[in-house]
Design brief:
Rossmann fold; five-stranded parallel beta sheet; binds 2'-deoxycytidine-5'-monophosphate; 9 helices; alpha/beta; 5 strands
Length: 209
């Protein structure tokens, strides 16, 4: 079984994808960490991440071991990830890895921006998470505070709007809901309620294979 979970930053897709993977005994891939790893490698090399040649070279160096690095969670890396993600060559390099991951074993839960539309258009279940940008910025702000940071809410909100715009407006694989995806607005839902709603939807869905 393949489950695609897409949505904008801080919509709750990572938490939901991890819980679904545990529940169904499937592998889980946070595909955003791939783009973050490309960004991190480009920044570490002192390259211009908007330069397609440099970004594609960084994408070719990414290995699965890169993906657990805590430094990928940095806000600068997140912003740069959405810059490299707009480069078609970068997306092409990462596509094969994601598709292969999805097919391995019993299947997988993949979360990202284009899983239901491009990476796994035949996924058995497609979920598309949304939430207002203010609610998502507040979540991210609270996470940063909990980590002991000195974040300013207005700044977090502004960064999130910037990243949303880049992810939605790029030409290649922009963030949008697949026509057959179930949309779940998590603005007023906590993680338990989102998980319960997703399970209800999956229970009503006929597997494709
Ligand atoms: O989900 P995240 O915040 O870790 O993603 C970081 C960036 O990577 C995001 O701004 C856009 C990009 N991304 C993408 O273009 N396609 C994906 N499937 C996942 C992430």
């Amino acid at each position: 079984m393949i489950i695609a979970v897409d949505g904008p930053a801080a919509s709750g897709k990572g938490t939901l994808a991890r819980r679904l993977a545990r529940h169904f005994g499937l592998n889980h891939l946070d595909t955003g960490s791939l783009y973050r790893a490309v960004a991190f490698r480009a920044l570490a090399a002192g390259a211009d991440p908007a330069d397609p040649d440099a970004a594609v070279a960084a994408a070719r160096q990414v290995t699965p071991r890169d993906l657990d690095d805590q430094r990928l969670r940095d806000e600068k890396v997140a912003q740069t990830a959405s810059v490299v993600a707009a480069i078609p060559g970068v997306r092409a390099v990462l596509l094969a890895f994601q598709r292969e991951f999805a097919r391995r074993g019993k299947g997988a839960v993949l979360d990202g921006r284009d899983i239901g539309t491009v990476v796994c258009p035949d996924a058995d279940v497609k979920l598309f998470l949304t939430a207002t940008v203010e609610a998502r910025a507040l979540r991210r702000f609270k996470e940063l505070q909990a980590e002991g940071g000195t974040a300013i809410y207005e700044r977090v909100l502004q960064d999130m709007k910037l990243r949303d715009a880049r992810d939605r407006e790029r030409r290649t694989a922009p963030l949008h809901r697949a026509s057959d995806a179930f949309e779940l607005d998590t603005t007023a839902l906590d993680a338990d309620a989102a998980f319960a709603a997703a399970l209800r939807f999956i229970g009503e869905t006929k597997p494709r294979r």
